[in-house]
User: Fold these one by one.
Assistant:
Number 1:
Amino acid sequence: MKEFNDLGDFQIEEVKALLELATRLEHNPEPRALAGKVLALLFLSPSLRTLASFQAAMVRLGGGSFVISPDMSIHGLETRPGIVMDGMAAEHIREAVPVIASYGDAIGIRAFAQRENLESEIADEEFNKLKELCDIPRINMESAINHPCQSLADWKTMDDFGVPANGGKFVLSWAYHPRALPLAVPSATVHMAAMRGMDVTVLRPEGFELPEPVMHKARQAAAMSGGSVTETDDRAAALEGANIIYAKSWMSTRHYGNLPADAEARRGREDWCVDEPWFDTAAADARFMHCLPVRRGVVVADRILDGPRSIVIPEARNRMYAQMAVLHQMLR
Amino acid sequence: MKEFNDLGDFQIEEVKALLELATRLEHNPEPRALAGKVLALLFLSPSLRTLASFQAAMVRLGGGSFVISPDMSIHGLETRPGIVMDGMAAEHIREAVPVIASYGDAIGIRAFAQRENLESEIADEEFNKLKELCDIPRINMESAINHPCQSLADWKTMDDFGVPANGGKFVLSWAYHPRALPLAVPSATVHMAAMRGMDVTVLRPEGFELPEPVMHKARQAAAMSGGSVTETDDRAAALEGANIIYAKSWMSTRHYGNLPADAEARRGREDWCVDEPWFDTAAADARFMHCLPVRRGVVVADRILDGPRSIVIPEARNRMYAQMAVLHQMLR
Amino acid sequence: MKEFNDLGDFQIEEVKALLELATRLEHNPEPRALAGKVLALLFLSPSLRTLASFQAAMVRLGGGSFVISPDMSIHGLETRPGIVMDGMAAEHIREAVPVIASYGDAIGIRAFAQRENLESEIADEEFNKLKELCDIPRINMESAINHPCQSLADWKTMDDFGVPANGGKFVLSWAYHPRALPLAVPSATVHMAAMRGMDVTVLRPEGFELPEPVMHKARQAAAMSGGSVTETDDRAAALEGANIIYAKSWMSTRHYGNLPADAEARRGREDWCVDEPWFDTAAADARFMHCLPVRRGVVVADRILDGPRSIVIPEARNRMYAQMAVLHQMLR
């Protein structure tokens, strides 16, 4: 495996093999598998779970990692092409990124969603620009429009908890949030659940439709897997029979890049906070998922997060096992 | 061993076994003992020695670690229960801490002494709240009222330098300092020296008495070990025959949580700086100890720190060996 | 090997043995060579390449490292001797550095060039003060006047690309830069190229002469190796027949420590930016080198950096292999 940038680059059977490997490594440690191997971790936006889970993954496989973030450079990194660098930035990504990559056997890259130009972000231009500067195996640690490590962990978590694949109902629900958040997780999640063969409903208010290319990609995955994908603002219909309610906030796609208009579109939507009533007509053993970090009392009620429906902690833990499988396939 | 939160949780023989293991690991490295094992390090207040000594300890045993501090989260971590998180904090410790723990085989936690409510800090409420969020073995890397890793290292250091246990005189002396410092080290130290069987004198000005629960715990340890514990402001009597002068500043317990009153209580106490005359009537081979960091010329004179009485560097080094023993017992 | 502070401390044959070891480790990994060994990394000024390449080097050899920078201490580190520490700094380097060293099997130190007192910096007083506080093997990770790890990597890079040693022409060219930069890299580089037996020309405008002690040391190395060292401001003569053009900016030595005078001396020198015409009379296969970070369009034109003459990425990568050789010799 030379790249792990998008779950959509893989066949369903390839993903299932990765998940089997993840579960094997969870139960049968291989503390010498990657002895002497180095993972470079490049963070262009901050992280807690991703940093910790990747560093832990490398240690568990007997290797190691190092972390670079732009604030470690004297005055940040320049990204614009062809510029005369007589300002603050002392280094250009065209040197910094290949050099960082040159010290690793693989590189994980977290890019930053500017939340300004929707088209550019759907094309994942920033992440692609960065990854093309590296000639070693590379891993998308969250880009403007994707988060394949989260998706692989989410898939494993549903397997672990016996959530049905074909025939299972997956509701990705928009949630209220005081800030305008990127599209990475919802875009990756709708595709992942469709690829797993589930009947996926995107539940969101008007103005928060997922972009058509995102929905198209998910529908194509569903066509291959036997699943389905729909989008609605009818909460009652969406939640009926749900096996999974996966909450996530994202910026208004109708007003993408326009913060005041986005804030206006979100105004009064505080009731988009997952709580007990959301599960009234769901499957008896329906589960609550979220990629974390999550705002309590805003995105989801405490009693859900602290109750038996929530599987957010095992979900976060599976980041580590999913990434161990990816690293094992890349570097072994 | 599932917890290393307080030396008081252990029998004297258990501590001695830990110290033997620490000395064995110092002289006979075991660079494969913890292959593939991960220590999560959670710092809620900054650190230099603790960070370095724990990271080095894991490498020496063949494992690894990762570090999380709240400033790595986008806007800090929320700690209040039941709050609607519509402010700055994007994550609650109720998710962050279990997730961090889920990536480790053990977790070290450094909590923050608010220095506001003495009763709450004596009960170590903040640390206990954090550790209860983790279901893996946990280590107290300094809490509001305790510092068992420092105490284990201090005990080893006295053994290394042949300081007598039963019959040895240990003086814990308050020292001047421009800031109001926590009670963690003095509280842990007086208990440790008593548990080691020493005759312990707490030397401090009026208003800086150690809290009664702290003294009570130390006296109980002394009763088991054959040592003794007293408290005084009579410097001449306290220092006579001392084998160890252990300097440490702490906030006024009479004015705990009241910074102006504490500053007033410290005013004019600049002579509480350990210097040559303090050793005039001490044992001939009396030693100076301090947990570091130490303010030169304020807490202790340069000529003491730079002279043959000071064992602060080996004392700091023993942090690593003491922690290696704890980790070895926890994770092997 | 107990110290790697200056290439000048070694015989030519010793350097060649290090380079052979570096190349061997590049092609034949030894992922267990330094199992359980710890490298302490002390950064008194920020770093990206040095941090990443040392951390990766230790992982590739089966050991590990930890990183300390002064901002990790509560209020920075005090460096002045004999001071009463009643201000902000809570710790003195006289404790902090020996303690950090006590956790490692070797220590790398990056000191800070104040760019104030030329004589003190040529004597490398700051670095020497720090290293004398450590009683374990130590590595200069860049000091005020030296950068032996960079030099070892540069030498290896020229070997890798078949750049002639004796008879090869090495031009170290001053370059324009908006800021006043230290003398570490130019001083180390002129010495390294001379020691390699090359004919070295330092090309710089008036006022930017390298200090006489630096030139003297390089000439002595040339006398041993059969090389030569000259200095000029005649660009046409300097570049003719060059095998290497190595660009680097540095502060005016005539106005050292005087920022306004230095800025005045640099004014109008924007044409000191290496570009295609610089290679017109150079050797056909002449190469461009730079230690990085480099300012594009200021120090060197994009078409050079992005073209076939530039070997800056392999040069940076060789930092890792050069340091692996040093660590292997120190800690094996």
Number 2:
Amino acid sequence: MKKVGILGGGQLGRMLLQAAANYPVETYVLEKDDDCPAAHLCTHFTKGSISDFDDVYHFGKGLDAITIEIESVNIEALKKLESEGVKVYPRPSALEIIKNKIVQKNFYVENQIPTSPYLVTSNKSELNNHLSFLPAAHKLAEGGYDGRGVEILKNQNDLEKGFDESAVLEKLVTIKKEISIIVAVGEDGKNALYPPVEMIFNKDLNLLEYQLCPANIAEKILWKAEAIALAVVKNLKSPGIFAVELFIDIDDNVLVNETAPRVHNSGHHTIEAAYSSQFDMLWRIILAYPLGYTKQIMNSSMVNLIGEENYKGEARYENLEEVLQIENVFVHIYGKKETRPGRKMGHVTVLSNERQELIHIANKVKQLLKVVS
Amino acid sequence: MKKVGILGGGQLGRMLLQAAANYPVETYVLEKDDDCPAAHLCTHFTKGSISDFDDVYHFGKGLDAITIEIESVNIEALKKLESEGVKVYPRPSALEIIKNKIVQKNFYVENQIPTSPYLVTSNKSELNNHLSFLPAAHKLAEGGYDGRGVEILKNQNDLEKGFDESAVLEKLVTIKKEISIIVAVGEDGKNALYPPVEMIFNKDLNLLEYQLCPANIAEKILWKAEAIALAVVKNLKSPGIFAVELFIDIDDNVLVNETAPRVHNSGHHTIEAAYSSQFDMLWRIILAYPLGYTKQIMNSSMVNLIGEENYKGEARYENLEEVLQIENVFVHIYGKKETRPGRKMGHVTVLSNERQELIHIANKVKQLLKVVS
């Protein structure tokens, strides 16, 4: 059996391990918290820091392959492991491009991949030189995750919120839709695209309400989006799973927002909705099996379960019973003992071929199910 | 989080734990082999014997609930645990009825549940008194599993194969079809039936070829079968998952073959084919959630992967890549390091609404995929 390690032990690792149990593979997880969501679902757990060279190197030495569930890993250690014959998914070279938002933006431009205009800033005071560039999103070059490390700067009054370190200032485009395409790339370069997912936002709060798959977009836009997603992964030159997040602006231009070189929140519905889920697919890639089938079994919507504001402590799931009574929902709770405001605690997938039903039940789940303490 | 233990660490435990990772629950497994399929997917693993009173009692003490993946467990320990407040699924009283095939047969008769005629034997020589009862199946009262403990006695020449201990001699009925119905029973007595599964046998070898769901039976027979399955679980008076295996004879009589008080091989297709799988369903019952939805998402067939004759040693899966190339198959390999002739090593589910396609692909998988060493 192949020995495969995962850097990071959060919910993505947990769902990877659920899928791994369908294949002959010995699994290893490296993570600081030995009670993390993935700690008890792997063959071997190692307590350690995924950003520490020695921890990653010693963890990876002797494994056949290694993958990640978060970008903030020690790339130097992965490079050394790669040079010593450990297969790394995604390649450290691709991770290096994506991990730093400045390098990532440059990569799009160098490869003629459409993306929103941007400037690079190295401290807060520089922002004063770019007032005419606002409104813009200020994004930390490294270390942002799950909404952290991003600030919207509308005008001069917002400059105080800007980052005083290396960052990208991205011009805000007027967005009609936000979509994501999960792409699988095999070791042999073969690829497979999942149908695009549409993000539905609460316009008042600018918060993601739910996701719909497939996205409701014109065929012409789908073709553009797929061509761009393929251009991204081809130029990254790496096997693995990639989530290419795209904006569609009011003129129907398709622009890359950002790319994640790993299984991704926008692919969670594939567990039930697709023949081969994004998690199954990554194992197929790592274990050198043929790529899976990305077609939807049924259309889907997906709601994230986020820790409610003002609650911190042992998690309780309000109205979980009511949600579990709905026939066509699939509940995934990540087993995190403690909830915190904004923490991702689970997700719920809805299957139906009726778009109105997908929307209706997603809204109902969103209203009912609350993570409190 | 509730603490729930599983007695036994085989593939049923493994699939239960895959499903458990969707809910907030702390899982415990008791099993002699600390490298068994379920050993690395639980929060806490305990090495010990599921048939030993002390091992089971000490394992279960302090847990909120306990369930089984095989019948050959120490029932006395489960009774003591139950009396001390641990919830047991199924109830030890139901397990006692089912564990011993003589008691099980008597239970059907006492409750007017149709089953094939039978006699009780306590040693091999008694079989000579029952020659006119042949052909019959001789089944060990206790300890049979996975085809072991059953001998077909056609005539006097076969008597040597009979068991020299407590056993049931079941008259062979002329079977038209063999089906199975999985029934879920909640703590409150509510129940839910899955669509029946049809077993397709190789008539020459009398070996299960594959299973189809739903079974191809007339509505009148479906009603009979469902009524009988419900009568079985109602009289067992226990929450849990039950597989009621039924014969349909040439006169369209429906007879109970036997009942398993746990998740069952004939329910494996529900992982992909049903909204709530049998594994998901058992967690819903144990965690006091509402029962799940038993409707099929799509029709299905299922093929067991059995260790080939003449191979013993580290398992290899011949033609696995070819099978993984088929778009609508789902491969489950149980991660057992060693194959042995007849050992259950995995299963493959096929989804399609075309019955001919289900049969065609099941046969193809059966022919291609071989477990060798």
